[in-house]
Structure formats: structure tokens, C-alpha cells
Model the fold of this input.
Amino acid sequence: MQAWEERYYDMQDARAEGITEGRSEVIRALIETCMELNVSREDTKERIKAKLQIDETAALDYLNLYWKEQA
Done:
């Protein structure tokens, strides 16, 4: 593989990583906003699934990661 090919693939990998990180930040912000607006956990999950076209398992994973129970 030539040096320019390696740089190209490195750039592609970095781009994919950036997209993934950005998506996670959008989901975190959506969850926090829903919490601030007192949207239920179930409705928040459905919103995540609908807006971001992800499956039930992924939506639950994000909820478990970012949903903070209010004291």
C-alpha cells in the first residue's frame, strides 16, 4: 500500500469516528432535553428510535448511558 492510500484510509477512519461521536452527543442532548421537559423514559426512547432510525436495543443502550434519575 502506498503512503497516500494509508493517509486516505486513516482519514476515512477518523471521519467515521467523528460521525459516531457526534451522533452520541446528539442523542445525549436529546435525552437531556426530554428529561428537562419531563418527557417519560418510554416516550424518550420512542423519540430516539423515530428521529435517529435506530432499533430498540440501541435506544435502550443510549437511555441507560445518558438517562440520569432526578433526585
In short: The two ends are 56 Å apart (CA to CA). The chain has three helices and no strands. The chain has one domain: 7-66. Residues 7-66 form one domain.
